[in-house]
Design a protein that fits this description.
The chain is α+β, with helices and mostly antiparallel strands. Helix content is 28%, strand content 29%. It folds into 2 domains: 91 residues, 2-Layer Sandwich (hypothetical protein PF0899 fold), CATH 3.30.2320.50; 41 residues. The strands form 2 sheets. The chain has a 4-stranded mixed beta sheet. A 3-stranded antiparallel beta sheet has the order 4-3-5, with no helix packed on it. The structure holds zinc ion (ZN). The site of zinc ion has 7 residues, from loops.
């Protein structure tokens, strides 16, 4: 179980949220995130709660999950739902469902975006803090 990645992502999200809260001088009620399956949304959620501690204990983190899709050299493009078994680097670990090859690239599933943040007073839109490469 490799959690370092999720801790790093959670920290990044929390830093951004903290910055928004400071800028607006308001408490953050809700954060809506889009998280690709490769970033382990469940684990990320846990770390957000854990690392958020008292500072964010009244903040709700809503995660909408983005499925992993892959593109293979053989031309296969599609879902790779069979791999959501928490392989840290699916792009290395999974074979193409069509040809069995490993020359895949991810077309989605790497997202980590803060879609919006709901503050005590107003709403802020913060799109694509990190572009998915
Ligand atoms: Zn293939």
């Amino acid at each position: 179980m490799k959690a370092v990645h999720e801790i790093e992502l959670a920290t990044r999200v929390l830093n951004t949220v903290r910055q928004i809260a400071t800028e607006h001088g308001a408490r953050v009620l809700e954060v809506n995130l889009r998280v690709g399956e490769i970033n382990e949304p469940n684990s990320l959620q846990l770390w957000l709660n854990k690392l958020g501690g008292d500072e964010f204990n009244s903040t709700k983190f809503n995660i909408s999950r983005v499925p992993i899709t892959i593109k293979c050299r053989c031309g296969y493009v599609g879902n790779a739902s069979s791999i959501d078994t928490h392989i840290p680097e699916p792009e290395l670990g999974i074979p193409c469902p069509k040809c069995g090859g490993h020359e895949l690239s991810l077309t989605s599933g790497q997202e980590l975006e803060i879609v919006d943040v709901k503050l005590e007073k107003k709403e802020v839109r913060e799109c694509r803090t990190k572009k998915s490469r």
